[in-house]
């Protein structure tokens, strides 16, 4: 390599590293503010249950704000596409998603944070791209870094966040520098979130069973069942959304009617466990408090989440998917001789892999969430879930790897 090429290579390296750090700092600050905001409004609703009855009004406000910010037709897939196509999103997507996702959690919609993280990251990347007038390849790299940064800040999983975003994008236009920049951004954002007192998601498994043929077949059965639940989860999200848009074409009417149904359904089941993301329920399972987890819990969470998504509330589906997997595993694993916490971890791993079709990211994310002890069973759970979850995905399944290996459902 001659001196000119070497100098050019070094300059590009420094430029992308600097971009990764700067974007990571911004993503860390915004992601931390988002995490604290969601925690605050969730606590507020828990202390004042009557707020749930204002869910229809919160929905109307959410639709109105999205129209004001002119990002009504921008979804998670649109943010993802900015990292591998010429598609662009508005920088205003970040404040719109931030505010409207907080509204969802405040009033009790069943939503998570990952969709919001990806879209906010896309908006942050669009801001930098516009200000710095970046070329097309660098713009895509920045988009990847933005999504990974906010995801890492919100979930506290820097390596899993970077790999997840790369695996979601799955494009030949993603080069090594894109991956490295995403990793720099996610790591920086994670450190910033720790400095801003965001507690990373970590769960302790009380008893990990020793391996034997008897343990293996039971574990394979539980993991495969988790993949089937993931199939049901994704199918419900798509069917409810399509059906709601077909029956209730007006955005304001749709979110008002379905919000009223969610409030009524909450009254019928007699608990607010299925409103919001449900992180408290997941944490309770791993702390030995699984009294409220019944065999029907996972199905009710799917129903509440499908209604929330169909209505048009903002947030994401990953945390509800974790809730679904945790409650499913916690309820049914003891029937196979496993502890509730171990079953919950298997369910969470199976659901994440099944609804995202990101097996590599799932193994890494599971290691960050549950520790290195989870690695052997995480790999098996991922394989079984990936095989049994079918084609549906929360995102465009055509962008995911190994599609031809998936079993038709």
Protein model, in words:
Helix content is 70%, strand content 0%. With 409 residues, the protein is mainly α. It folds into 2 domains: 3-195, Clc chloride channel; 213-405, Clc chloride channel (Orthogonal Bundle), CATH 1.10.3080. Helix 9 crosses helix 14 and helix 10 (251-269) packs antiparallel against helix 12. The chain is globular. The termini are far apart. The relative contact order is 0.14. The model is unreliable at 397-409 (pLDDT under 50).
Shape: globular
Spans of at least 5 consecutive residues with low confidence: 397-409
Structural domain count: 2
The number of distinct β-strands equals 0
Task: Give a topology summary.
Layout: H1 3-47, H2 55-68, H3 76-81, H4 93-107, H5 114-132, H6 136-155, H7 158-169, H8 176-195, H9 213-247, H10 251-269, H11 279-286, H12 297-311, H13 318-332, H14 340-356, H15 359-370, H16 375-388
Helix pairs in contact: 1-4, 1-5, 1-6, 1-8, 2-4, 2-10, 4-5, 5-6, 6-7, 6-8, 7-8, 7-15, 9-12, 9-13, 9-14, 9-16, 10-12, 11-13, 12-13, 13-14, 14-15, 14-16, 15-16
